[in-house]
Amino acid sequence: HATGPPPPTETVSAGVSRLTAALDDAFRTQLPDLRVTPVEPGCERPQFQYHPQYKRFFASAFLSDSKGRGWLYLVLAPTATERRPACVPVQDGGTCEDRDLPGGGTARIETFPVDGGKQYQVDIDRPDGTTAHVVTNNLHYGSAEAVPSATRSEPILTPDQMIRLGSTPDLTLYP
Residue by residue, what is the 3-state secondary structure of 101-112? Predict the structure, then answer.
């Protein structure tokens, strides 16, 4: 679909390195009490990757604290030019809220049950032309065949923490 701003001008390799460093810094400064473990085997920290077909950067991590473990998925993409459809709950027991953010931009916050647990999804359309898609839940998937199990009563990040993370100035496609 059509997007607003022009594509990023830095190389994919430079973008991956810059965004990975920015994410690492955001974890340290915004979420200092969480243990961050990369999903990718052999990595010391979560790494951004680039998906050429969809022209977006993505990263994932396991997060844990004294209450249990959670999962985080973060996607950065150019903001679409199409207007986002009206906010409606996506599943039984789900919620949907659109919020104007200080300094510009908007966030859509969705919560819903999934696989016996809870999932939060936040989409942030930032004034700089970057959209951050942030997902977290309270599930552990042991393997592709295993039934997931809830690891805690709520997802490890709150929607406000997800908005703060997705709004981190250095997590932009347009430095």
Answer: CCCCCEEEEEEE
